[in-house]
Specification:
Lipocalin; 266 residues
Length: 266
């Protein structure tokens, strides 16, 4: 084989390495699992291990006197009065990664040139809001998410969203406001997952539409975990699918994912 042929083969191999390497580091998708009640509970339990146990102290109370009871008892009791009140999104609860904390995110299927189907995703941990409970019902929920803080496995994708699709440079915030009370039918006890549908107004990309989000809620120690996944049609919010050389097509729909940890407002 001639020296020129060997050189051409070497160039082709190097080009293949660059293409595959570029796909692996910049285009491939390591989409995380959808949020669910079990993973949310695990994240909260791990973070509460060292904070939910109060040190024993001698209060001088007689046996049976509730004044010196465990400080966590108020949130673990199955009494409607014990969980009634206002709870706030607590971004300090959970593990070290975004996936183990409060977040709002998205997933959408895309077709990559010469590679095939991939799941694009992004999650923002910059979330705030409140949940108000009255007896066995959630009466108000107001959530706000900073979409400029969306993170995925691709900095190129995150940057492109500033001027394409979600256009976060123009529409940096997304909000959700509950419009119908959620009656869980019972006060959640530790380890019990309650399922319901949150009906409310979603403000996304400058458009407000009513949506229904199936959710799972549970009491975990001194916190409340809420997870949910809901479909979204881009056209409903005037969102045009993004475009890029490496992307052949993007589906016209996706999912919104939420994982929110609430602590009692004090």
């Amino acid at each position: 084989m001639s020296k020129r042929a060997l050189t051409i083969i070497g160039v082709l191999i190097a080009l293949a390495v660059v293409i595959v390497g570029g796909w692996y580091f910049f285009i491939r998708s390591d989409a995380p699992d959808a949020p669910d009640a079990e993973s949310a509970r695990d994240a909260l339990e791990d973070s509460q291990t060292t904070t939910t146990e109060a040190p024993a102290t001698d209060t001088g109370d007689e046996p049976g006197d509730t004044a010196g009871s465990d400080t966590t008892a108020d949130t673990n009791a199955g009494d409607a009065g014990e969980i009634s009140g206002t709870w706030t999104v607590d971004t300090e609860l959970g593990g070290d990664s975004i996936d183990d904390r409060s977040y709002v995110g998205y997933k959408v299927q895309e077709e990559l040139v010469s590679i095939g189907s991939s799941t694009a995703f992004g999650r923002t941990p910059v979330v705030s809001g409140t949940l108000t409970i009255d007896g066995t019902s959630a009466t108000t929920v107001d959530i706000e998410a900073d979409l400029t803080a969306l993170e995925s496995d691709s900095g190129f994708r995150d940057g492109a969203l500033g001027n394409q699709a979600l256009e976060t440079n123009t529409f940096p915030m997304a909000t959700f406001r509950l419009t119908e009370p959620i009656d869980f039918g019972a006060v959640p006890e530790e380890g019990t997952v309650l399922k319901a549908t949150a009906v409310g107004d979603l403000n996304l990309h400058g458009v407000v539409k009513q949506v229904e989000i199936p959710i799972e809620a549970q009491l975990v120690g001194n916190a409340i975990a809420v997870t949910g996944v809901a479909p979204v049609l881009f056209a409903d919010f005037d969102i045009d699918p993004p475009s890029a050389r490496a992307v052949a097509s993007v589906e016209d729909n996706g999912t919104i994912e939420i994982q929110l940890f609430f602590s009692r407002e004090r």
